[in-house]
Design a protein that fits this description.
single chain; three-stranded mixed beta sheet; eight-stranded mixed beta sheet; globular; about 35% helix; alpha/beta; about 325 residues; about 15% strand; 13 helices
Amino acid sequence: MTATLSPGFRQGFDGAVIVACDANYLPYAGVAAAQLAAVPGRGYDVLIGSPDPLDLPEALAAQGICHVAARNPALETALPLDARRSLATYMEIFLGAALHGRWRRILVLDSDILLERGDPSGLLCADMRGRAVAAVRDNRQWRNPGKRTPDHVRLGRPSAPYFNAGVVMIDTQAWAAQDMPARCAEFARTRLAGVGRDQALINGVLNGDWTEMSPLWNWQFTWASAHLTAMADPCLVHFIGPEKPWLDRSAGIVPMRYRAAYAGLAGDQAAAGLTRRVWPDRRGLARALLRQWRAAGPMLDYLARFPDEYALIDPR
């Protein structure tokens, strides 16, 4: 389990923010990485992480963004893969082991995330309470923290705090001390089939033994939460559904400000589509507003659990 870094890279901090992707998603990962690198006075290194080496565009390298390749052959043979999920899906697991001894903390992001505001530096310094992982609760448990997820049902387990793996902070020393690589490999070989992918794997291993971050650091955007998004003022917005901001079908669903962030990746005609205002479907909007009205009370109770956006709490 080793990491290969871009030649000439100079580490500047003991924490790193890494956007995970494969070659197909590199353009979208690059948008988030560029946003993270542009944070004034940032106290972290910024990298693109993938299973295999990638050539980064010159514009990213000019911002001091590095590439890191990491794999775990002992684990890979046990991992379920499909057309939608490549090895890059498991990057947080590979990186947690491969970067031990180099960075004290790493924050690993999926490539379908944008930085809207905030500085992850404070998050990387927060008290993780001795745990290997800090993350944001999956949105299925936002309104009902005790909800039993489909993974719990498939594993025959009672409900436990369950996080979304799109944003995962790892304490690399604790990750090694708690033998997470071996535990993940064992769970993947014996329990993961028919359950899920990376999210099911890490949650299955930890079973609630993780530290909870504010949902502002992994705001899981859906059509049903679009209006609360504006009120919540999140830091990292995660487009968890099929309507990715760079796709035509997201028009009228994903706010134009998010779509415009990807306009620089497209040709002139496609870029015009990303910056063209499209009003939402009337019936869809009515349904979304009704769902948000019904969820407003429980959601506000959940958000109030966090005294500030950098606070980490015990999920139980």
